[in-house]
Amino acid sequence: MTPDFTGTHLWDRLCWAKEHLEPHQSDYRVVYEDSIDECAKILAPDPNWMACALAGGILPPVWVYWELAKDEAQPGFKKHTRGYLLHETEPVGPMTEEEAIEYLIQKDVPQHVWQNWDEGNRPKMVICRKGQLPQTREWRNAWRISDELAA
Amino acid sequence: MAGTIVADTLTHSTAGSLATNYVVEGTPNYRIQYNGSTNAVNDSLNHSSFTDNGTGDYTLAFTNSYTGTSYSCVGANRSPGGVAGGPDQFDHSASSVRNYLFNSSISSYDGTQASVIISGDLA
């Protein structure tokens, strides 16, 4: 069971998790297209991070990352001054694997992709199983989300 | 707290003293070893996700962001046929870094055993 980490530095929580939690290999992948000039990108969750998400009490709420991203997007940004949000905000509770993937999308996929993934002529993002991806990496730089999968 | 030593300085009987902030700040606080061909993460710390951007091109995201982009990062590529690999110092943020792998022809390449280590000030 996760100790009460309220107010504990996030780094210390991650070190605890590394020592005490079994990594969880997720079968989910997130395929997205963030530019018409580039091939589809594939996001895979980290097994140790996924263990933290499933255990609960370790990761900060995802809005903390949005706040830091806002700060970093400011012209002339040099250094974070609100890092305390990562450490002092009450950690989120246990997530299901599906909830963890949603969290990760909102943390690590560009906002312009996930905020309007279903607008336009075709979806820009798809959550799939690893087995649904091509089995070889042939023509990797030409991969796109197939209309069949997007449907 | 059990198991915790609180000290600002370590002193050796003859070799002198060392401020413990050098130990804390000098310890790498991100690491990953991964297979760029299968997108499998073999081991990691402070890593949240791995994005395969294309052949030999990967974005590595941090769980505990850094204060800025002045952290130091090194990459290695021990894959068969691979000769180089490294984080892009021009394409990184406080929350992620992009890592590229190349083969002996200096073409982008899906290495099977790549690693990155970062040391810097955490946010």
Terminal residue distance of chain B: 23 Å
- Beta-strand residue percentage of chain A: 5-15%
Instruction: Summarize the main sheet of chain B.
Output: 4 strands, antiparallel
User: In percent, how helical is the residue content of chain A?
Assistant: 25-40%
Largest contact between protein chains?
Answer: A-B, 37 and 31 residues
Q: In one word, what is the shape of chain B?
A: elongated
Average pLDDT value of chain B? 89
- What general form of chain A does the structure show? globular
Main structural class of chain B: mainly beta
What is the typical, i.e. mean, pLDDT of chain A?
A: 94
Q: Order the strands across the largest sheet of chain A as they lie in space.
A: 2-1-3
Radius of gyration of chain B: 17 Å
Outline the structure in words.
The complex is a heterodimer of chains A (151) and B (123). In chain A, α3 packs parallel to α5 (97-108). The N and C termini of chain A lie far apart (40 Å). Helices cover 37% and strands 10% of the residues of chain A. Chain A has helices at residues 10-20, 47-55, 62-72, 84-88, 97-108, 111-114, 147-150, and strands spanning 28-32, 41-45, 125-129. Chain A has 7 helices and 3 strands, in the order αββαααααβα. Chain A has one domain. Chain A has a 3-stranded antiparallel β-sheet with strand order 2-1-3. Chain B has 123 residues and is mainly β. A 4-stranded antiparallel β-sheet of chain B has the order 4-3-10-7, with no helix packed on it. Chain B has a 4-stranded antiparallel β-sheet with strand order 5-6-9-8, with no helix packed on it. In chain B, a hairpin with a 3-residue loop joins β1 (9-12) and β2 (16-19). Chain B starts with 8 loop residues before the first strand and ends with a strand. The A-B interface holds A 9-11, 14-15, 18, 29, 38-39, 41-49, 52, 59, 65, 68-69, 72, 77-80, 82-83, 86, 104, 107-108, 137, 140-141 and B 29, 37, 39, 41, 44-55, 59, 61, 63-68, 93-96, 110, 122-123.
